[in-house]
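F.,

This is the one I mentioned.
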């Protein structure tokens, strides 16, 4: 306990016009938060101001980050401002490290008023990389649109901020630190916690760790290769998979969180985790997985580098859901996927007669359904999978779900996947990302596309590529009405649906710190057993040609091709 009360100051500030949070919070280049006066402070103040003062007083807030550059500095500011804004306790992962799923878990466990997560997810880190701030509410999930809109409106008019500038926290020592503040009756408390333990306890209640330990270290154990990509998941993988479940220490690589992720791109896909794919090709390992910067996303690989598309991954988990003890106890309330995700999950929902929800991209839409008791399992094509035990996507949860299926079925990843296609049919799927394109050009292209598909004459139009013909059955700009509260979310992506369940989708992404990202998604259902094993890029070539012709995306953006193909 410090001897003399610390001073609480109210300082003048000026607003910034560009602090609108996207679906994953506010993301900018790191230097913006570092060099623009009060840029970080303003946004943090607006988060606290968005919470009613009566709710803030004496409340608990969880803070964690993925360890990227500027993480520790930002945490010190957040603690100083939390104290000045009436928060009673801040719970922080040791050294400022805590994965996004773990933050959600801890928020729910201690009944915190919310959490602040310092991450730009799968975006690069370092002084020249990206930094981000995301606010999660008391449910443990990303702030809903009404809250992020309120934060943005406050950011446009902010005139002052509250801070306790002399307060300094030791982030490295586990335990409680108390501080007396002037004009405050109770001490302000900071609690530094093991970032893994509460989260690991939750996983122990979901999965059968004895079964998983036998799979990973028993007499007939499988060989695995897990790549944490120098993100926050490393300590979790080491403690849970290696130390507790017995997988050899060398089965987990790149497990030390680094400020710049070792100079790499912490994105678990075929492009940025190509080294893991290459390692898997030699046949030494039966199962492989990669994670992103903050522990949300996952990529699943089988022997010889067999790739499991994320849309297929959630469908396989759904089809084998009772291999996971948690669902044996709770039952299954519903499945959900984001609109751009392939319809593979729909086929399982249809066969099992379980309700399926199609939402806009963004995990917060799943949270509303979970809070209402309507949803148990959900996923996104962007390598995100999760369940209702928390309110975030969870890469390690998805890996343990797959391992539970492997343990129950004693088949390879590839055999499980091909059996799934034979049972439910296959959704061939790909996504093209055009990153950091000119925003004005991208917006103009999307407006012209919408004008084209909105024309009544577009419905019924036939496109011929080679010997194949595709007839337009429907086209729209996706609009979602939340079945829980009736909230309507418009302009969520342009959809062109062809007869036979093929789709072309165009979206502008809102999660990038520079320029715009245009995403093109192609989804085509195939139930002919003789056509289930084609290369996806070959199977979808005709639909890709149609999409490029309709959008003129290369000509409109000046790009010869996509930055990333998934």
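My design for it:
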């Amino acid at each position: 306990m410090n001897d003399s009360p610390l001073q609480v100051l109210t300082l003048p500030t000026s607003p910034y016009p560009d602090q609108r949070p996207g679906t994953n919070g506010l993301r900018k280049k790191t230097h913006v938060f570092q060099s623009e006066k009060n840029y970080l402070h303003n946004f943090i103040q607006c988060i606290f101001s968005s919470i009613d003062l009566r709710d803030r007083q004496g409340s608990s807030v969880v803070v964690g980050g993925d360890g990227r550059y500027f993480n520790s500095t930002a945490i010190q500011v957040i603690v100083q401002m939390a104290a000045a804004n009436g928060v009673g306790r801040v719970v922080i992962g040791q050294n400022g490290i805590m994965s996004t799923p773990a933050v959600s878990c801890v928020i729910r466990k201690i009944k915190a008023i919310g959490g602040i997560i310092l991450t730009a997810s799968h975006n690069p880190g370092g002084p020249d990389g990206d930094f981000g701030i995301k606010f999660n509410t008391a449910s443990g999930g990303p702030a809903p649109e009404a809250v992020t809109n309120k934060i943005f409106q406050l950011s446009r008019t902010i005139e002052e901020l509250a801070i306790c500038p002399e307060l300094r926290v030791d982030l490295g020592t586990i335990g409680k630190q108390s501080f007396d503040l002037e004009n405050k009756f109770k001490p302000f408390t900071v609690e530094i916690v093991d970032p893994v333990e509460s989260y690991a306890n939750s996983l122990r209640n979901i999965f059968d760790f004895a079964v998983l330990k036998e799979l990973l270290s028993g007499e007939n154990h499988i060989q695995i290769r897990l790549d944490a990509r120098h993100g926050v998941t490393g300590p979790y993988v080491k403690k849970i998979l290696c130390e507790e479940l017995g997988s050899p220490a060398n089965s987990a690589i790149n497990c030390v969180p680094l400020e710049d992720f070792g100079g790499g791109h912490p994105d678990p896909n075929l492009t940025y985790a190509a080294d893991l794919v290459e390692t898997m090709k030699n046949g030494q390992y039966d199962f492989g997985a990669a994670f992103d910067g903050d522990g949300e996303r996952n990529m699943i690989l089988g022997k010889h580098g067999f790739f499991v598309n994320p849309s297929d991954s959630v469908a396989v988990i759904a089809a084998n859901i009772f291999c996971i003890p948690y669902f044996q106890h709770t039952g299954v309330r519903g499945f959900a996927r984001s609109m751009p995700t392939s319809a593979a999950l729909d086929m399982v929902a249809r066969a099992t007669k379980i309700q399926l929800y199609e939402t806009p991209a963004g995990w917060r839409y799943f949270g509303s359904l979970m809070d209402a008791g309507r949803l148990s399992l959900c996923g996104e094509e962007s390598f995100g999978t999760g369940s209702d035990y928390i309110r975030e996507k969870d890469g390690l949860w998805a890996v343990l779900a797959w391992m539970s299926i492997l343990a129950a079925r004693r088949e390879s990843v590839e055999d499980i996947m091909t059996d799934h296609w034979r049972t439910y049919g296959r959704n061939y799927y790909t996504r093209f990302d055009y990153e950091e394109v000119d925003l004005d050009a991208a917006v103009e292209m999307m407006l012209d596309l919408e004008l084209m598909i909105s024309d009544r004459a577009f419905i019924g139009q036939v496109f011929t590529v080679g010997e194949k013909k595709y007839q337009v059955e429907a086209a729209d700009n996706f609009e979602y009405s939340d079945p829980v509260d009736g909230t309507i979310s418009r302009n969520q992506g342009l959809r062109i649906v062809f007869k036979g369940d093929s789709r072309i989708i165009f979206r502008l992404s809102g999660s990038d710190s520079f320029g715009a990202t245009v995403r093109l998604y192609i989804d085509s259902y195939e139930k002919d057993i003789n056509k289930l094993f084609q290369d996806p890029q070959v199977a979808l070539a005709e639909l890709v040609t149609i999409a490029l012709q309709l959008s003129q995306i290369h000509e409109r953006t000046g790009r010869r091709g996509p930055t990333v193909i998934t």
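The first helix runs from residue 30 to 35.

Talk soon.
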